[in-house]
Design brief:
With about 90 residues, the protein is an all-alpha fold. It has helices at about 1-35, 40-65, 70-90. The radius of gyration is 15 Å and the shape is elongated. The termini are far apart. The model has no long low-confidence stretch (mean pLDDT about 85).
C-alpha cells in the first residue's frame, strides 16, 4: 500500500508539473496572438519568470523523489521546444 501511495504521489506531482507547463505555453500563445510581439521586454520577462518557476518546481519535485530527474528535464526541454516553435511561427506572420 505504501508503494502504491508513493506512485500515486509521483503521478500527481508529474501531472501538476505538466499542467503548469501547459499553462505557460497557453499564456505565451495568447500573449503572442493578441498582446505583444516576442521582442517585447514584457513578453521576455513573463517567459523567463514562468520558465524559472517551472524549473524550480521540477527541481523541488526531483529532490523530494516525486519526479525522476530525467523526466523533469524532458518536461522542461519539451516546453522550451514548444515555446521556440511558437516564437518561430510568430516571426513568420
Amino acid at each position: 500500500m505504501a508503494s502504491e501511495m508513493k506512485l500515486d504521489h509521483r503521478e500527481k506531482a508529474y501531472l501538476l508539473l505538466q499542467s503548469y507547463a501547459d499553462k505557460i505555453i497557453k499564456l505565451i500563445q495568447v500573449q503572442m496572438d493578441h498582446l505583444t510581439m516576442p521582442q517585447c521586454p514584457l513578453y521576455e520577462e513573463v517567459l523567463d519568470t514562468q520558465m524559472f518557476g517551472l524549473s524550480r518546481q521540477i527541481d523541488f519535485a526531483v529532490k523530494l523523489g516525486l519526479v525522476d530527474e530525467h523526466d523533469g528535464k524532458n518536461l522542461l526541454d519539451s516546453v522550451e521546444r514548444k515555446l521556440s516553435a511558437l516564437h518561430e511561427a510568430s516571426l513568420k506572420k
